[in-house]
Design brief:
CATH superfamily: TonB-dependent receptor, beta-barrel domain
Radius of gyration: 27 Å
CATH architecture: Beta Barrel
CATH class: Mainly Beta
Largest sheet: 22 strands, antiparallel, barrel
Number of domains: 1
């Protein structure tokens, strides 16, 4: 249901969005145990600790993230969280540069990302190629530099009633450093044992006092990452149209990346009860990835330009900006107030290198600007809360508020030669990635207003309860309402039971609604445009496309919290997540019947296409087990961590073909087994981690063993032919590091995947005649052992 502007104004005047509490810096020298840390994610209670949480939450300190040995936040989270999957796809266009991460096996954009409790913007890329997370347009976690992070709180529970869209699988809240003094300088260098992929990184941060209680903390990080390559020579029958034998011409691995980030986080009081705060992040990453090799005699090559063939490359420059500013404090009547504005943006450009436009002939350029994608987000929050004394064990926290948000998406065309069709061949556009056409481009936006309210408190010494409700009104698809109930009962100081039940949603992203790209295929020697249609395109509507609706979910979780001995903490949380109307990208619809219909009904030259649609319902069931034990010895301490996740997704419903498509081609296949396999078996069914840190004297020794469960990649959409399907077996990795502290210095030597584990090699039939030996769906990549050294100076 659409509302007019008057009703939106009335809603804005009546109520207010969740209180995203921001942490305050700890007093200098404070040593707060993780379980006793005050959490700010998933609760409005000001003094709720991790151990008292009504829902499962992980707190990852900067030390824990740094100990993973990687400069990437997403990789560090995947190594620290059993429920997070971060594969490393290769030869997937822009997805190589902006890789998606999955929580609890759901879509990458089913996770809400916050920075200091404020909504962070998504990436502009929508994943349309053959990788896990296909169809998604998630946040790029790697735009947030590790040098700026104090800790990360990961809420493993549905939270749409508290935070709005995207929080179906959970919430990742990244808390930035905010000390009034001190800082550090950090230098790191590492390389894979295969001799490539060298990474150099430099970071710095420093805090400064402002007035009596204010602070500002600056962080900066720069680095360079070289390519990795695990491709092999072509094995097959030599010919002018195949790569040369015995020579590695293809590349399969991580892209080359140059990156730099700058952040600040500050707060200063302007009265006895109110302060102003602000956060800023600027990140730029320049990535170079690879396509498929074109041999010398390939029809796509011009021998006078590339006599030995060519390997086209994609240069993506991703620029992210985040700015937040707000005022918070306590009014005379005891009401806590937080009023804030947040801006975020991402721009992703595409330059195609070492390529050509075959149709332009021998004078074709070898580099093209192919266009850009961009998103912007403006968020205004008014968040209020009160402590109510209802005569129970403790006061009840009432929270209520308003959020207004505007999202924008733009797609800019490439230079004309990047998509042009010349006279030399019916192969238009720059090879590997044709430029976006002017007809693909456009500017799109929407607004929404959200109202929320919640109650949470300790009813008795043993029982804690919480309830939350949220109403949202979107300018494009209408309204949605969601709710959540939470509870925790402590049978004793050592045993507690917690449970939640909630509904949730994810609004279709503007990228999914309006992204469009065109590639030319040849059918019977005649060129036809095969288009990823935006759903409003008349051709897409003729094929059955409809306006996208929000995905809707129902989450249920039940958990056991055990603290049977000093230093020992164990949680076991079972969950079920039903998601209806999931948005996914259809198969290419290119049958003769489809092509003839389009050409005869006002769409000449269009040979078919694909579009996003709400067509799949799924149920995900699983269990998380997390255990920590701090063993204090006479002159040393051993900290042990155990984590396990079991996760299974099943498809409950696939929507029947729409009547419009059936009328054209009753045999059309909108969703094939390859894509459906990514939902059900494409990510590991389970993951196990066991880690330990031993501190003695000036030494700190760390070890972490991880077992990644099996996953399956399906090939071909013929159910009767499963000969190329492959299940990849479980694999173990082992990470080791040692740190020696000398005064203000700390020196670390470490090795990730020290046993040099690799995933199973792909079947020869799927490896492009031996050139691509590894699957891009591998949850730990396929680069082998990584050795690094780190030096840090702190003050």
């Amino acid at each position: 249901m659409r509302r007019n502007p008057l009703s939106l104004a009335l809603l804005a005047a009546l109520a207010t969005a969740p209180v995203h509490a921001q942490s305050t810096p700890q007093e200098e020298g404070a040593e707060t145990k993780v379980l006793d840390s005050i959490i700010v994610t998933g609760t409005r209670v000001a003094d709720r600790t991790a151990a008292e949480s009504l829902a499962p939450i992980d707190i990852l300190t900067v030390e824990a993230l740094t100990a993973t040995g990687t400069p990437e936040l997403a990789t560090a989270l995947a190594r620290a969280l059993p429920s997070l999957n971060f594969p490393r796809p290769a030869i997937n266009d822009g997805t190589d540069a902006v890789r998606p991460a999955q929580l609890r096996g759901l879509s990458p954009d089913h996770v809400l990302v916050l920075v200091n409790g404020k909504r962070y913007h998504s990436g502009s890329l929508v994943n349309v190629n053959g990788s896990q997370g296909r169809s998604s347009s998630p946040v790029d976690l790697n735009t947030i530099p590790m040098s700026a992070i104090e800790r990360v709180e990961v809420l493993r529970d549905g939270a749409s009633a508290q935070y709005g869209s995207d929080a179906i699988a959970g919430v990742i809240n990244i808390v930035l450093k905010g000390s009034r003094s001190g800082g550090s300088l950090n230098a790191r260098h590492g390389q894979y044992s295969a001799g490539d992929g060298a990474i150099s990184q430099f970071g710095a941060d420093a805090g400064f006092a402002i007035g009596e209680d204010g602070f500002i903390h600056f962080s900066a990080q720069v680095g360079d990452q070289e390519q990795t390559n695990r491709a092999r020579p072509f094995i097959g029958t030599p010919s002018p149209t195949t790569p040369p034998l015995g020579v590695v011409v293809q590349r399969q691995g991580d892209p080359a990346v140059e990156f730099g980030s700058f952040t600040y986080n500050g707060e200063v009081a302007f009265s006895d009860t109110f302060s102003i705060y602000s956060t800023g992040i600027y990140t730029e990453r320049d990535s170079l990835s690879n396509g498929f090799f074109r041999p010398a005699g390939d029809a796509r090559n011009i021998p006078s330009i590339y006599p030995n063939g060519f390997l086209p490359q994609i240069n993506n420059v991703s620029t992210d900006k985040h700015l937040g500013v707000g005022v918070r404090g306590t009014m005379a009547n005891g009401t806590s107030v937080d009023v804030s504005y947040t801006y975020g943006s991402n721009e992703l450009t595409f330059d195609i290198l070492n390529t050509l436009n075959r149709s332009l002939g021998p004078t074709s350029p070898t580099e093209f600007y192919a266009g850009l994608l961009g998103v912007e987000q403006d968020v205004f929050n008014v968040d209020l809360s009160n402590q109510l004394d209802w005569g129970m064990a403790y006061p009840v926290t009432l929270s209520y508020g308003l959020e207004w948000r505007q999202d924008a998406f733009r797609q800019g065309p490439g230079e004309p030669l990047s998509y042009a069709l010349g006279t030399f061949a019916n192969l238009p556009g720059s090879q590997v990635f044709p430029g976006f056409k002017p007809s693909d481009g456009g500017n799109f936006d929407r607004q929404n207003v959200s109202l929320y309210a919640g109650l949470e408190g300790d009813v008795t010494e043993q029982l804690s309860l919480g309830v939350a409700a949220r109403y949202e009104d979107y300018s494009d698809f209408g309204t949605t309402s969601n709710w959540k109930l939470s509870s925790r009962y402590a049978f004793s100081e050592t045993v507690a039971l917690r449970a939640t039940v909630s509904t949730g949603f994810r609004a279709p992203s503007l990228q999914q609604q309006f992204f469009q790209s065109t590639a030319t295929n040849f059918i019977g020697g005649v060129p036809f445009d095969i288009v990823t249609f935006r759903v409003t395109n008349p051709a897409a509507i003729a094929l059955g496309a409809e306006p996208l609706r929000p995905e809707e979910s129902t989450n249920i979780s039940l958990g056991l919290v055990l603290q049977p001995a000093d230093g020992l903490y164990v949680t076991i949380d079972a969950y079920q997540i039903e998601v209806d109307d999931r948005i996914t990208l259809s198969e290419n619809l290119t049958s003769t019947a489809v092509r003839n219909f389009l050409n005869a009904n006002g769409f000449p030259g269009v040979g078919g296409g694909r579009y996003f649609t709400n067509a799949i319902d799924t149920t995900t069931r699983g269990v998380d087990v997390v255990g920590t034990y701090a063993w204090q010895l006479e002159n040393s301490q051993l900290d042990l961590t155990l984590g396990y996740n079991y996760n299974k997704t099943e498809i409950d419903r696939i929507a029947a073909n729409p009547a419009a498509l059936n009328a054209i081609d009753p045999t059309a296949l909108r969703f094939g087994r390859v894509e459906l396999g990514r939902f059900e078996v494409g990510s590991p069914r389970d993951k196990f981690q066991l880690g330990g840190v031993y501190n003695v004297g000036n030494w700190s020794l760390a070890a972490n063993a991880t077992r990644y469960g099996e996953f399956t990649v399906l090939f071909g959409n013929n159910p009767a032919d499963t000969s190329r399907d492959q299940t990849y077996g479980a694999e173990w990795t082992l990470d080791l590091s040692g740190t020696y502290k000398l005064g203000s210095w700390a020196f670390t030597l470490g090795a990730d995947n020290v046993l040099d584990s690799y995933p199973d090699e792909v079947l020869f039939a799927n490896s492009t005649s031996g050139q691509l030996p590894y699957s891009g769906s591998s949850p730990f990549g396929f680069n082998g052992a990584y050795l690094y050294a780190n030096a840090k100076y702190s003050w």
